[in-house]
TrEMBL record:
Keywords: Hydrolase. This is Alpha/beta fold hydrolase. One of its GO terms (molecular function) is hydrolase activity. The keyword Hydrolase applies. The keyword Hydrolase applies. The lineage of its organism: Bacteria, Bacillati, Actinomycetota, Actinomycetes, Mycobacteriales. It comes from the Bacteria.
Amino acid sequence: MADTEITFASGDVTLHGSLRLPDGVSGPVPAALLLAGSGPTDRNGDSALMPGSIGTLRFLADTLADAGFASLRYDKLGSGETGLGPYEVEDVAGLGFSTFVDAAADGLDYLAAQPGVDADRLLVIGHSEGALVGLALAVADDAPALAGLGLLEPLAVRLLDLLTRQINAQVDGALGAGALPLELADELRTALTEAVESLRADGTLPDDLPEPLRMAGFVPVNAKALAEEDALDPRVLAGALPAGLPVLTSCSARDTQVADADVDALDVALSAVALTSVRMTTANHVLKEIGERDSTGADYIEDLPYSAEFAVGFRNWLAGL
C-alpha cells in the first residue's frame, strides 16, 4: 500500500500530500479526505512542535486501505512540505480559518477526480480541530453529498470557550501549587476575558496581553483565525448536516484535550444523522493506547500501539457504509 506523492492548488498555495489506493481492489473505490488537527500538524499527524512521530493520520490511512478505501492526506498551510507557501510570516495575519476550509474543499475535489476513486462515495474524516474543518466543509452550500463524516476526538465546543476553560484550569493549578501569586492569577483571568470579548466583538487583540496568554496563541497575528474559528459552533454545524448522513464521533476517557461530556452534547446535536459513537477508555488524544495512566502530551510521540477500541469501532463503521 504505497503512497503516491501529489500536489493540489488552493488559492495561491500549492499543498503537498499523499494519495493512497488500496491494493488488490478492482473498480472505483470509496475514498476519504483526512484532515489534521491544530498547529503545524502535517499529513501524518506529526507536529513540528514535538520531536517525534505521532502518526495518527498515517494510521487512519492504513486502516482505510485495509478496509478497501482510498485516502488523501496533506500538509496543510503552515506544516510539512507545504510550509507557508507563497506567504511570509507577517502575511499570516491576513489569513483566516476559512483558508483551511477552502483547502479541504479543494482537496476533496482533487480526490474525487482521481482515477480509481468513486466520486459518489466520498468521506471526510477530521481529527481534533480537523473535525471542525470537516463539519464546516460538510455544511457548505457547494459541498458534494458525502457518504460519511468522521469526527475523531473533535473540537466539540466553540474554540474560545475551550481555550478559556483550559487556561483557567492551568491558572487554578498554578495558583493551588503556589507557583502563581493571586494578584497575577486575577490579572490573567481578567485579560483572558477581555481578549475573548474583543475577538468576538471585532476580531482584534491588543498587543499588550500578558506573556502567558501570548504564549497560548493570543497574539494579533492569530486574531483573524481565532475569531473565524470561534464563530463556528460545532453543535450548530452538526444540526445543519443532511439528515441520515453516516457520522462517526469518537472520544476517550484518557483524552485530556476533549471532554466526553462535550462530545456527548455534540452527539445530541447530531440527532438527525445516522450516528455511530465510539467511546474509548485507554486512548489518548492521538488515538494511542496508554492504559490507565494519565496523558501528559509526552505520550503522543511514544512508540505505542494505536487504540484497539477505536480500530474496531472505526472498521465496523466503514463496513456499514
